[in-house]
Automatic annotation (TrEMBL), chains A, B:
Family: Belongs to the class-V pyridoxal-phosphate-dependent aminotransferase family.
Top-level taxon in the UniProt lineage: Eukaryota
Enzyme class label: lyase
Role description: Catalyzes the decomposition of L-selenocysteine to L-alanine and elemental selenium.
Aminotransferase class V domain location: 54-446
Name of the protein described by the UniProt record: Selenocysteine lyase
Gene3D superfamilies found in the cross-reference section: 1.10.260.50, Aspartate Aminotransferase, domain 1, Type I PLP-dependent aspartate aminotransferase-like (Major domain)
Length: 458, 458
């Protein structure tokens, strides 16, 4: 136990180190502040890191904003009560959750009552798809009861999705198909835009279609999908279908939030998935459901203590919820700034790559018929000394990027690039480079320089 | 933006306040430490709180240990990478998770590969019960295929549980029963011990019994259930049943961990639920599964990115996992100390209540035929001026306790107390008082004094 103590200008400062815990107390008259160590490094090694390592994998995950860390840390200490408890410390936690829910709602133009916290995007996506199956069964049950048709087995819900979805959509729907729980149409995206065609979506609708689930922006190419157009078309189709046969619209907005404006009314969705760690928030998420359980069906995945209005039981993860709220608040306030900064740096990166490597690079996902996220660059190195993307990354460890979804089949070409019509040769040589709020042009210069060194060497 | 800066004995200290964020930097030569504000209060109000409010609801939730807060906060800052990413920052996160998994395993005498992180106890309990249903269906499918019996509908899995389980077991099994997914035996606990009789469990076994799920210790009475005796009996029954008809044993150890020794081998369980926030850890959990997916069946609830060996996909909540690991490490090292301290204070509370209130109090769940958690006291005030438990708490807000599970039907008698044979009159007048690691005899004195004031007044 080391202890350092000073009195200075009437302030009492103590710094104590017990084992691995280092706390700092600041006492002045009646005011007490307690700090806890969050980072320690030798400045030399910090400088060393800064000049060498460049993180360019913000689509895999983002660091937490300082404000988010503070919201979490504060809540860990002062809002640890059980939000269901009636006493003071419980009420405090409850208040933190209420505030966070409002921030998450405001970020996407929703009502607070339409937000339900989840453990993350995977739970959210699985939940929404499962809900559609259960809803169809109930709606269909009502229908067969009324018409006396007993051929239940043949009638299955039908889903429409794209062929570029995240595994937490793709694998669930493949499982539904394999297990004969549902029929699924996996729509190919257009090779001229990297996006689904709205007409293809409409054409795929059948009387059994219960849900359309298409991501808002792709994680590898950044291509933004035409959800609001789909929303408008589906709304008009739904006017002709009974309430029990209404087609539900879901979008996984994991990669879009914090990068482009996301407004549930503009999109016309019934469900939307929110993932904290993609926008400088913590590793939890939320789902948006328009009037959950009333105008939009929602069946709980879990049974338990009644939290989240019985829709998602389990004692609330207050600190993480506080962090998610803070991350949402930051996006709500600063989106334009974040977005334009990222775009400036991403565009600088692409110009720099073009000017340094000329015809030896090509960009995947840059289409004139569609828009991209402002932070994503998918580039293939196809020159004479070309090598697979994962080899580039292993030879240039200073660039912390990826070849696609985190560690997802590093040595195979991305199925998403193949889906947008990229050849196997080019897809194998791709890097996904995604910039963040703090990425600078100097970071880009350092990364491009290291790539130049590699290709000059080989 | 306020800024305070001092150089002192070669140290440079800066304290800066930008909006709501207060950070403190400590620079000395090459060493940089960064602190973040976690708590601020006027000492006067701290003293005020300390003399007035006594938290006695540790079974609802616990505060986080300082070491746990530090582990989380540290991880928020330095291990924020995606654990599936191949680069440095991802590897760092992966290492944090590996270490935490080992600590959780060691705490309960398990192997690290038997621990799977979840979002909490509710997910864990729901998952294990759902797994049993799926396992039964697969095992039964194999059986009907071999004997050509097609009467599938009549054959349902059978569960055995107690009538004092947490809602995340009780409501799932009630749902299974309602939806004709499973048959369920809800065994009444003995009125002379508050625990299930091992013989009743054995007698309830049928050829379709797929799982026995009984909690390790009750959250309201603290009564410890005879899981290891059940484990031994089931083991010998299982020797006579084929592998496909093996009875699986699960215990929800939410309330036991951190209070009594919990060892999976001694208990003889196949599954065990772990809940961080009951032992000074964060709001996540884990399940123990003996060789998951091989010797013990485990079917994922979610599909997605392949995390947790495909058993529980979703990007890992590294900071919370780090905190859970730290909380487990603390329990592993200090259990005897925690346990004896809590017991001393709880016993002091009960003596004090007896000496102050005599026949006007009675203790629920104190049986000579069973053991209790060392921290739990369930007491009813049955004297002349008796009032319902929730009224006592609303009149004495300084005592932060509960009448049962957090905010669970405050105005009705606890079904758990009724289940152990307590009369409606006494059950309505019950308080659940649960002490923690830092609860002192002075806290107890203050609480009892406030109760005395209330009853003298009325």
């Amino acid at each position: 136990m080391h202890h350092w103590c000073r009195s200075l200008l009437g302030l009492k400062l103590t710094l104590s180190d017990s084992g691995r815990r280092l706390t700092f107390n600041f006492n002045y008259s009646l005011i007490k502040l307690k700090f806890i160590l969050i980072d320690s490094q030798q400045t030399q090694s910090i400088q060393h890191l800064a000049s060498k390592m460049v993180y360019l994998d913000y689509n895999a995950t983002t660091p937490l904003a300082d404000e988010v860390i503070q919201a979490i840390t504060h809540s860990l200490s002062v809002a640890w009560g059980n939000p269901s408890s009636c006493h003071d410390i419980g009420t405090k936690a409850n208040h933190v959750i209420k505030e966070a829910r409002q921030h998450v709602a405001s970020m996407i133009g929703a009502k607070a009552t339409d937000i339900i916290f989840t453990s993350g995007g995977t739970e959210g996506n699985n939940w929404i798809l499962q809900t559609a199956v259960q809803h169809y069964q109930k709606a269909f049950e009502a229908k067969i009861k009324s018409i006396g048709d007993m051929d239940v087995k043949r009638n299955k819900p039908h889903f429409i999705t794209s062929n570029i979805e995240h595994d937490s959509i793709k694998l669930v729907l493949e499982h539904f198909k394999d297990q004969e729980i549902a029929d699924v149409t996996f729509l190919p995206v257009s090779k001229s835009s990297g996006a689904v065609h709205v007409e293809d979506v409409v054409a795929a609708v059948t009387p059994s279609t219960v849900m359309i689930s298409i991501m808002l922006a792709n994680n590898e190419t950044g291509v933004i999908q035409p959800i609001s157009d789909i929303g408008r078309r589906i709304k008009s189709i739904n006017r002709q279908r009974g309430d029990n046969q209404r087609i539900l619209l879901h979008t996984d907005a994991a990669q879009a939030i914090g990068k482009i404006g996301v407004n549930v009314e503009d999109l016309g969705v019934d469900y939307l998935t929110i993932v904290g760690h993609k926008f400088y928030g913590p590793r939890i998420g939320a789902v948006y459901v328009l009037n959950p359980g009333t105008s939009t069906p929602l069946y709980p995945l879990f049974f338990g203590g009644g939290q989240e209005r019985n829709l998602r039981p389990g004692t609330e993860n207050t600190p993480m919820i506080a962090g998610l709220g803070k991350a949402a608040e930051l996006v709500h306030i600063n989106l334009d700034l974040y977005s334009s900064k990222m775009q400036e740096v991403r565009d600088y990166l692409e110009e720099k790559l073009e000017s340094c490597f000329g015809d030896s690079v090509c960009f995947n996902g840059r289409f004139k018929d569609s828009q991209r996220l402002p932070n994503t660059c998918n580039v293939s190195f196809i020159g004479k000394s070309a090598m697979p993307g994962h080899e580039i990354l292993s030879q240039v460890p200073s660039i912390q990027a990826s070849v696609g979804a985190a560690c997802h089949a590093q040595d195979r070409p991305s199925h998403i690039l193949l889906a947008i019509g990229i050849s196997d040769f080019v897809a194998r040589r791709a890097l996904r480079i995604s910039v963040g709020r703090e990425t600078t042009k100097q970071d880009i210069d350092a990364a491009v320089q290291d790539l130049q060194k590699l290709f000059n060497k080989t």
